[in-house]
DNA sequence: GATGTATTCAACTGACTGGTTGAATACGAA
DNA sequence: TTCGTATTCAACCAGTCAGTTGAATACATC
């Protein structure tokens, strides 16, 4: 059951922990781009960016296609959804618990927006 | 302008990149806990967990109170919101762009669920 | 086939990180 | 004051990671 589901989530969090990779994701949200295009804004070598993209790919955050010698990179929004799902899960558990605590301390306000 | 706003976001992403720290966040969503309580489920030393909590605190993901010699840790859901806000921002930009591309290629389906 | 461009592979390096153990601090209880 | 518990500080170590440069691969064009 769920062989590497946890692994994928972990890789996604690790991938977004790097500011360069987050910048790449931000750029890709506006459309696919090649490695060179993605490297241009950053003061690091193209090779380094290539490896960043590989990390994002392993995390399922991006996919790649072929176009002659180019390898355009595309955002894979499902992986981003998995991340927000994880975060929201615990955020909502916390919030729900908080509300019921409020209700406990202040029983008159049981039905509040 | 926004002195360390970026820094806070970065620390939050880095903090959640570690599975132990994510487990701590998950546990705290069900209510505050002491360092010892948080360390119990993990096969590492209490000192190590103490440092994990410190990282979470620096990222603004948790806060701490005093109770005699205990230092209960509480979840700070606003930081989690900042994370989802970042992710959703680019996820939505991507999705919006995708829809308008669809409409361009297939102009008849302008109003689809 | 030779050249140029886009990308990746390989080997190396310095910095950071997560773990350890041992000592220190803070506080309540006896 | 002494003892026990909770937590943190400090020094150390091994592994990981992001960057580098140089060589290799893949493809289009000349």
TrEMBL record, chains A, B:
It comes from the Bacteria. CDD domains: HTH_ARSR (cd00090). Residues 1-95 form the HTH arsR-type domain. Signal peptide: none annotated. It holds the Pfam family HTH_20. One of its GO terms (molecular function) is DNA-binding transcription factor activity. InterPro entries: ArsR-like_HTH (IPR011991), HTH_ArsR_DNA-bd_dom (IPR001845), WH-like_DNA-bd_sf (IPR036388), WH_DNA-bd_sf (IPR036390). This is Transcriptional regulator. It comes from Cellulomonas composti.
């Amino acid at each position: 059951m769920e062989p590497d589901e946890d692994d994928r989530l972990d890789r996604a969090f690790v991938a977004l922990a790097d500011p360069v990779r987050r910048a790449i994701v931000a750029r890709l949200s506006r459309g696919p781009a090649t490695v060179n295009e993605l490297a241009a804004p950053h003061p690091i070598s193209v090779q380094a960016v290539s490896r960043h993209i590989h990390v994002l790919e392993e995390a399922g955050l991006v996919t790649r296609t072929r176009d002659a010698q180019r390898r355009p990179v595309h955002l894979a929004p499902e992986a981003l959804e998995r991340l927000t799902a994880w975060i929201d899960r615990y955020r909502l558990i916390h919030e729900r618990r908080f509300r019921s605590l409020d209700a406990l301390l202040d029983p008159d306000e049981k039905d509040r927006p």
